Amino acid sequence: MNQIGRQIRRPTRKFLSSGPFSSIFLLSIFLTVADNLCCYATLIPQGALALTRFFRPDLLLLAKIAHRQGFKAMYTPTSFKEERLEVLHRLMRSNPLGLLVSNGENGPLATALPFHLIVDGSSFGTLQCHLARANPHWQALDKQNVLIVFQGPDEYISPKWYPSKEEDGKVVPTWNYAMVQARGLAQVIDDATWLKRQITSLTNQQEATAVNPWKVSDAPGDYIDAQLKGIIGLEIKITALEGKWKVSQNRSLKDRSGVAENLSAQGKDEMAQLVRDYGGLDSANS
After folding, report:
1. Which residues contact residue 250 at a Cβ distance below 8 angstroms, ignoring those fewer than 6 apart?
2. Contact between residue 271 and residue 279 where contact means Cβ atoms under 8 Å apart
3. By the 8 A CB rule, do 150 and 267 touch?
């Protein structure tokens, strides 16, 4: 049986090593499959690596590099793409309640958690959080690729705000939003010292603007120690970070202006300002 398998694989490898079946071509197929069928970048990448071992040993290295760097799976037209690290980090800090998503034995698992972002000299930073020990999600997380979604401001956009509506009526509603998706390898941490440091950092982050901020040390030490026994820590080294600011950039200048004016009239100033900033309205009116 092994001899027959070798005879089949030899011509197959020869056929796949030339012509249109080049390394770049095959890698693009694997990446496309991973992007479209596995938004959590866990199952398909491993399958792609297995396939490269069979067909193209030289492609294995390329696939491993792509896997380590993280598969970017969020659909983001060029006009909506935000890549400035400081902007992505600002949204994550302003909206720290992220949705942690991973693959479980019976399908996707998701838990909303407050995250603390650490800028540690790595390419994208590190995320730390904690879960209730009673939450079974953490048991499926260690050494797993995970996705964390941070949702910024979002607003419904009515087509009646577009001046172009009066021209041909060819307008429909949409939704504007800003979002960051972070991906990385999760590490479960069951250590009281680490957990106390994590909850202290998270608390200080959220209490920073308070007139008289509450501190972890304000509570009795034995009470805090007892609370720590009920949680489990999680650290994610971010390997891929994507930002999507869908704020009417694909509309005409007059339509963007109409959106910003109507949002401001409704007191939705944060989204109105994003439409102005990303739509070039302030520079157009200056």
Report:
1. 77, 79, 80
2. no
3. no
Domains of the chain as residue ranges with CATH: 2-69 (no CATH), 78-285 (2.30.110.10)
- Cα-based distances in Å from 277 to 179, 245, 260: 16, 11, 10
Q: In which residue are the tokens 């307008």 written? A: 171
Q: Which tokens go with 195?
A: 């957990």
Cβ partners under 8 Å of residue 109, min gap 6: 101, 102, 103, 137, 140
Q: What pLDDT does 59 receive?
A: 43
Q: How crowded is residue 82: how many other Cβ atoms within 10 Å of its Cβ? A: 19
- The pTM assigned to this predicted structure is 0.75
pLDDT of residue 285: 59
pLDDT at 41 over 60: no
The rounded distance, in Å, linking the Cα atoms of 127 and 186 is: 9
User: Torsions phi, psi of 221, nearest 5?
Assistant: -60, -40
Tens-place pLDDT, residues 76-113: 999 999 999 999 999 999 999 999 999 988 899 999 99
Average pLDDT, the chain: 83
